[in-house]
Amino acid sequence: MKVLVINAGSSSLKYQLIETESEKVLAKGLCERIGLEGSKLTHSPEGKEKYVEEKPMPTHKTAVQMVLDALVDEEHGVIADINDISAVGHRVLHGGQYYSDSVVVNDDVKKVIKDCFPLGPLHNPANLIGIEACEDAMAGTPQVAVFDTAFGQSMEPKAYMYAIPYKYYEKYSIRKYGFHGTSHKFVSGRAIKFGELDNSNCKVIVCHLGNGASISASVGGKCVDTSMGLTPLEGLIMGTRSGDIDPAVVQYIANNENLSVDEVLNILNKESGVLGISGVSSDFRDLSAAAQEGNKRAQIALDAFIYRVAKYVGSYVAAMNGVDAIAFTGGIGENDCDTRYKICQYLGYLGIKIDEEKNKERGKEIYISTPDSNVKVMVIPTNEELAIARETLDLVK
Ligand code: AMP
């Protein structure tokens, strides 16, 4: 079967066409600047030349049509007919408290995605537009919604409740949801298999460290806690997001800089994190280079990032009363061996021992702990598109 995976953002749309038996990517690409000037499609078919088309894309519907046209094009296409696509899997940011699993889209599902617009104001509307554009272009082809919040739905109230008046939970569903769920589920599942852990009760911590960063704790593959919250702003220090801060900081900046709450939130989302501390970059490669050249703020940003990850790992070990495996993933988790090593140096008290040579490896499933380490520490590359294709296949086959 061939599954088209769609990740629609507010002005972009990423896609992959995956052959589910071989799990090979037949084509992938990106529509950029949808609804803006200078929109373009970059289409990379397997075994063929990359194809770039600059053409106005006023709506996501136009973008979806361009993607489908590219997939069946005589020159740079990879399938003969749109009907060769058996199903479409959509990444949907927020499923609120309604969905703890992926689901085949129908009117009820679309209503939930819509009801969750206030919880995911940038992504959910784009996700729904992407679904409806595919429904229009591919009538009869099943559409599946894979929610980024689904994995976090197994958390207990003690983990997801904020200590604010309960009426806000009742009125507005304000609670911790967690994001990157598709990645956390995929990586924790792989960690259980790779680490030959006991499927029913193993305790796993996944550190998804990329430009967006989050961490999860799961027991027997079920999430018990995760660092992102009502929105992806909570938790670890990220590329441009602050992660945890005292909420009073919002009021303090707003009052002193004469800014609205929305404007301060924008700063916390887009101008903070390691970029905010360093003033150099949100990219860890730039930060490491700057730190090596003696830039103190870049060094503080790296140290603060590492320290925060280590603190979260410690708190999740306490929450689960132990840990069997820790898995690193995401652009930093998979590639930045120095950051990985420094995080693990905080964890010696758990009896963790790192093999420095193995830790230098990049981008593949590997143990970085020594055989006598008390906890298995590993690198597990994430693959959210493949995870979405698998979930889609499970629902439609
Ligand atoms: P992601 O959002 O998962 O794509 O991750 C992006 C982050 O991964 C950026 O901060 C990159 O600097 C970082 N990254 C990617 N490759 C490397 C590498 N080889 N060494 C260090 N950091 C890397």
TrEMBL record:
Show the catalytic activity: acetate + ATP = acetyl phosphate + ADP
Q: Which GO terms describe its biological process?
A: acetate metabolic process; acetyl-CoA biosynthetic process
* Coarse class of the protein's main subcellular location: cytoplasm
According to the record, the signal peptide region is none
UniProt keyword annotation of Kinase present: yes
Site keyed Transition state stabilizer: positions: H180, R241
Q: Which UniProt keywords apply?
A: ATP-binding, Cytoplasm, Kinase, Magnesium, Metal-binding, Nucleotide-binding, Transferase
Q: Residues that bind substrate, according to the entry?
A: R91
Q: Which InterPro entries match?
A: Ac/propionate_kinase (IPR004372), Aliphatic_acid_kin_short-chain (IPR000890), Aliphatic_acid_kinase_CS (IPR023865), ATPase_NBD (IPR043129)
CDD domains given in the database record: ASKHA_NBD_AcK_PK
> Where on this chain does ATP bind?
K14, H208, L209, G210, N211, G212, D283, F284, R285, G331, I332, G333, E334, N335
Q: Which Pfam families match?
A: Acetate_kinase
GO molecular function annotations of the record: acetate kinase activity; ATP binding; magnesium ion binding
- Cofactor names: Mg(2+); Mn(2+)
Q: How is the cofactor bound?
A: Mg(2+). Can also accept Mn(2+).
Cellular localization per UniProt: Cytoplasm
Question: Which amino acid positions bind Mg(2+), per UniProt?
Answer: N7, E384
Record: active site:
D148
Any GO CC annotation of this UniProt entry: cytoplasm
Q: What is its EC number?
A: 2.7.2.1
Pathway field of the UniProt record reads: Metabolic intermediate biosynthesis; acetyl-CoA biosynthesis; acetyl-CoA from acetate: step 1/2
For the protein in the UniProt heading, the enzyme class is: transferase
* Function text: Catalyzes the formation of acetyl phosphate from acetate and ATP. Can also catalyze the reverse reaction.
- State the family named in the UniProt similarity comment for this chain: Belongs to the acetokinase family.
The entry describes its oligomerization and partners as: Homodimer.
Instruction: Kindly provide the name given to this protein in its UniProt entry.
Output: Acetate kinase
Q: Which gene encodes it?
A: ackA
